[in-house]
């Protein structure tokens, strides 16, 4: 997988758009939907996966249906921003299942995390194990979602 953009043609774009809406369909169904033969579709999807355009295929779970009712957006500022200390913090939070996303950002805080938890006691436990116990964390500012008006995973291609 590389960070450089892959050239996509119209068939690739149709496949990607269809898979972003429903990745559970069979290859035959996908091929029919995007108007190509099943072998062509299979070859294209394989190439899109091997080139890193398709990172992975997952099921999106409704958090509230599995007891994860609290969404927190957390800003983190570190004391020391050297590259190795930034990478250390990323490794530190990456291992926690409640942390769904971690972004290095600029300007402002060093990181923004998206966290999904059951409740406030679960947030307090997470804050202690990830932030309070980490010597390089200088500041933590947390926003709690009161309503999610949009959630989308599709990227325009």
Automatic annotation (TrEMBL):
This is Lrp/AsnC family transcriptional regulator. CDD domains: HTH_ARSR. SUPFAM superfamilies: Dimeric alpha+beta barrel, Winged helix' DNA-binding domain. The keyword Nuclease does not apply. It comes from Janthinobacterium fluminis. Keywords: DNA-binding, Transcription, Transcription regulation. Residues 8-69 form the HTH asnC-type domain.
